[in-house]
Amino acid sequence: MPKCILVKLDIFSKIGLGHFSRINNLAEADLENEYFLIYRTDIDVKELLKKSSFRDYFNIGSKESNLKWDNLNKHSIINITDYKNDIFFIDRLIKHVENSYGVVHSLIVDNYLVKQEWFNLISENSRINYLNLIYIDDFNSNLNNINLSIFYPSDKNSLVKESNNKLIAEGLKFTPFSLDLVNKRVELFTKNSFQKENNNILISFGFFDEINLSIKAIKEILIKTNYHILVIVSREAKIYKNLCHEYSCNNRVKIFDYVSDISSIYIKSKTSVGTFGLMSLEKAYLAVPQLNILEETNQENIKNALIKHEFANSFENISKLFNTYTSSFLFPEKSLYQNLAIKSKRLFGEGILEWVRLIKRISS
Questions:
Q1: The pairing of beta strand 3-9 with beta strand 34-39
Q2: Among residues 1, 166, 355, 359, which one has the fewest Cβ atoms lying within 10 Å of its Cβ?
C-alpha cells in the first residue's frame, strides 16, 4: 500500500510560487512517498497543478478564508477558530486519502501564518496526532510539537536532535533545489563552465512582481548598459500587459511568462537583479552574480545569509541600482564567478535530496 504525505501550503499572488515550488521539488524527488496538496489560492492554478508531481490536490479556500490567509501581514486577524477550521479540513482529507490511496504518515506545513497554537491543536487531536509533523520554518520560530523543523535560510549548517525527539535541520545545505538544478550544477562545475561569456542580465522580482519593479529596472538597464535583458514574470501579474506593451518589440528585451527549465535561463545570464526569494538561492547555487532588493520580511534571513557569504549585494530602490557598491556584481569579472563557485561547493548540499533523507530518517 502506498505511503502518503499531506502538504499544507497556500498559492497566493502576494506570497508567490516559492513555497509551492520547493514542495513540488520534494514530491518529484521522493520515490518512496506520494504527496497530496491542501491549498488555498487567488489565482488560476489548474495548469500549474496539472504539471506538478502531486498525486492529488484539494482546494479548501473560500472568499472569506482566502482574505485571512493571503499574505504575511494577516497574522493579527487569524484566530483559533480559523486554525480549528483548517485542521477540520485536514482531518477530513486524511480520511479521504486513506480510503482512496494509502496510509498517511506525515504532514508537511509550509505556511508562515501557522503559529504554535495550530500545532498544539494538532497534538490534542487524537485522530491525527500520530502524524509526523514537518515544519518549513522560514523565520526560525523553533515551535514545539514538531518532529522535523527545516530552516535553510541560515548562515550556518547543522543537524541537531533535541531531547523532545525533534530534529532541526538548519543552513544552506538544506536548500530544496530541484533535481534538475542539482544535476545542472554537477554538469557546470564538472566542466568548469560557470563563467558566462554572454551579455544577458536576468530580471525577476518574483513571479508576480508585487512590488512593480520590472519595468523600472528595464528602463534603467537599457539606458545605462548594453545588456540584453531576460525578464521572468507571470501572465497573472498586474504589470504583465504593460510590460509586453512597452517591450515585446524591443530586440534587447525577452519576456518569459513561464519557464519549464529555470536553469537554462540562469546559465544564459551574466548577472541578475531580483529579490531575496528562492530564486536568489538557486542563483547562488549555480554561481550567478546577483543584486537583490528585500521584498518581504520573510526574505530577511536569506538576505543575511547570502550577503554574509558574499553571494549577493543588495539595493534599496532602483535609483540606487548603479553605484560603486553594486558595480562588482552588476559588471562581474572572472574572479567573481570562481569565488562564487568555490563557496557554492562548500556551503550547499544536494538540494531536495537532503529533504528526502530527513523525511526518511523521521519516518523509519
A1: parallel
A2: 1
